[in-house]
Amino acid sequence: MVTEIDEEKNDVNSICPICGGPVKRGCIYGSDRNALRWLAGEPSLLKNIRAGAGGGEIIGESPLLSGSHIKGIRCETCKRIIIET
Ligand SMILES: [Zn+2]
Hints:
Blueprint: H1 4-7, E1 10-15, E2 22-29, E3 36-38, H2 45-52, E4 57-59, E5 69-75, E6 81-83
Antiparallel strand pairs: 1-2, 2-5, 3-4, 5-6
The chain binds zinc ion (ZN).
């Protein structure tokens, strides 16, 4: 059985491709059951409304039990997050 502590261990096979620091596996979670969506460019209210109305490209997963999320790794040094689409 995987515990929460085990899930937070460093991914020994991965290092940050930007700074070479250690990374941890994790997920970014959405606040509702709709899929997370990608729209290119700078953030805007109009794009946020479009995403909420079903626009943009669906990324990540939205299974019923765990809700909207996207898996990735986060660098402990530079704090960047690399997502797995
Ligand atoms: Zn880094």
